[in-house]
Design brief:
Blueprint: H1 2-17, H2 24-35, H3 48-66, H4 69-74, H5 76-101, H6 107-117, H7 123-131, H8 136-164, H9 171-202, H10 207-227, H11 232-245, H12 252-279, H13 281-286, H14 293-325, H15 327-332, H16 339-346, H17 352-359, H18 374-403, H19 410-436, H20 445-464, H21 477-501, H22 507-529
Helix pairs in contact: 1-2, 1-12, 2-12, 3-10, 3-11, 3-12, 3-17, 5-6, 5-8, 5-14, 6-8, 6-18, 7-8, 7-18, 8-9, 8-11, 9-10, 9-11, 10-11, 10-12, 14-16, 14-18, 17-18, 19-20, 21-22
Amino acid sequence: MPLLLLVAGSAGVAGLARRTPVPAPLLLVAVGLGAAYIPGIPDYTLNPHIVLPLLLPPLLHTAALDSSYLDLRANLRPVALLSVGYVLFATLAVGYVAYLVIPDLPLTVALVLGAVVAPPDAVAATAIARSLGLPHRITTILQGESLVNDATAITAYKVALGAAVGVSATWGQGLKEFAVASLGGIGIGVVLMVPLHWLRCRLRESALLENTLSLLIPFTAYAAAEQVGASGVLAVVVVGLYLGHRSWQVDFETRLQEEAVWKMVSFVLESAVFALIGLQLPVVLRGLGEFSTAGALGYAAVVFGVVVLARFLWVFPATYLPRLLSARIRTREPDTTWSAPVIVGWAGMRGVVSLAIAFSIPPELPGGGPFPARNLVLFLTFTTVIGTLVVQGLTLPPLIRALRLPGRDAQAETLAEAQAQNEASRAAEARLDTLLQDEHNALPGPLADRLRTVLERRRNAVWERLGAVNEVTGESADDTYRRLAREMIDAERRVFVELRDARRIDDEMMRTLLRRLDLEEAAAYREAAS
């Protein structure tokens, strides 16, 4: 019942957020904070054994499927500098400052705190970037960072935790564990991606089986990597990027179902995750123990400040130094203005992964006795997550507007789309002419003309978006075409229902006829959305 209440409530709030100017993650966190003290609301303790292996893989897999392997490869240097270099830098910076500021806090525990709060959660940042039309390269870098930085942070956390509990206390052992986890995770992903894609392509007869396999893939990749001590996060990302890059080889019905399934899964999980962040407040406050609230808030302000400052200290040199030192980079990569690293630096919001890692800190040391300052680490993680989501999340949209970054050139993108569609349509027309020369493919003239008409309309549709619009409706000719097509489909659908109600056709036949209309309407909708 508590789980059902969480899912239903968070989905409702996320739906409500679409009618407000407040981004859904921020509204969910705020509602979670308020709901935590409503009488009758159960305690939702964040269980890392659920969040990391059950929630993180599908969220990462969805993001990887939607990412562009080619874009990430083209921006590999800035993505790697953020997802690996920045996370390690933030771990050391936050850890050392916390060690200096908080009395009696061991350095190893301070580094655990640094690793916990190091990885930004770019879900909210990328959503804002897309909604405001940020340049494609910035969006790609933020999204690429979010795919890999969790693996870096979790590995750094394991190394720091091992030093804190006395399991591994040397830098050499830590670097070895980091290398094994990183290379092992990538290796597991590379080993799994080809056979998994092969299996998907061999299940063409059943979209249902293919999508069942699709739901199992992220959990399989994560578990396989973690079983051998490698990074499950990197394994999931590698597999997801490969499958997304090769998705065109999968049956069209599978792609339609898969897109709908993963959108639903992502919506439910992201909504529940951000609501869970706010609901942790009572749990964290109860655990403060010997630390006063005022003192803990002072430490929280320091940690929050270091987290924000460290990102700018890393982003600006990482943006300009490689260009300064390498003529090859200056030639290959586009020039950037100071406003781009400001946006990337401010888009450093933390999320549920940091909280899940913090809650996985063991309450006791292996030799006995409590883990030093565990409750304080939990509190500082919580305040950092909330602080970055609220402060940076609320101010990022106005900051983007104030800096007036050049957005995407919609006309240039439409022109490129039109040219691509033109080439594809001509290739399809040539293929049709070849096929019709074979007597086995003989078609009556009207049907062959209909195929050519469809190609012609598809070829002209994108060009029409560049042309004049209807002065009365404000629509292009193609927009009007799609609207009228949907009206015709609705008219057919109503007739099928009336025939079923009159018992002139049965339900099975009606569903078959409606499915054909649904596919046509889905195609029209997807064209309109593009």
